[in-house]
Design brief:
Layout lengths: L6 H15 L11 H8 L3 H13 L3 E4 L3 E4 L5
Antiparallel strand pairs: 1-2
Helix pairs in contact: 1-3, 2-3
Protein name: Regulatory protein, gntR family
GO molecular function: DNA binding; DNA-binding transcription factor activity
Keywords: DNA-binding, Transcription, Transcription regulation
């Protein structure tokens, strides 16, 4: 019996798909952790974990005091 994917992975995969499709372009600002939590109806820790996963995948970058942005694509 398949198990449901963890919510933070669903969020990360959704954002990653938007980046790969070009819907989100390098330099685009992502919603705040609070906005993501509200949009996906999850706890802020879950949204934060999703952003951490995207950062680990090098798809996003954080700028202290400014926000989180889609990373420049590396060739």
């Amino acid at each position: 019996m398949p198990t449901a994917q963890a919510p933070y992975r669903q969020i990360a995969n959704d954002i990653a798909a938007k980046i790969k499709s070009g819907e989100l372009k390098p330099g685009d600002k992502l919603p705040s952790t609070r906005e993501l939590a509200e949009a996906y109806r999850v706890h802020m820790n879950t949204a934060s974990r999703a952003l951490s996963l995207l950062h680990d995948r090098e798809l996003i970058t954080g700028q202290p005091g400014r926000g989180t942005y889609v990373a420049e694509r590396t060739q």
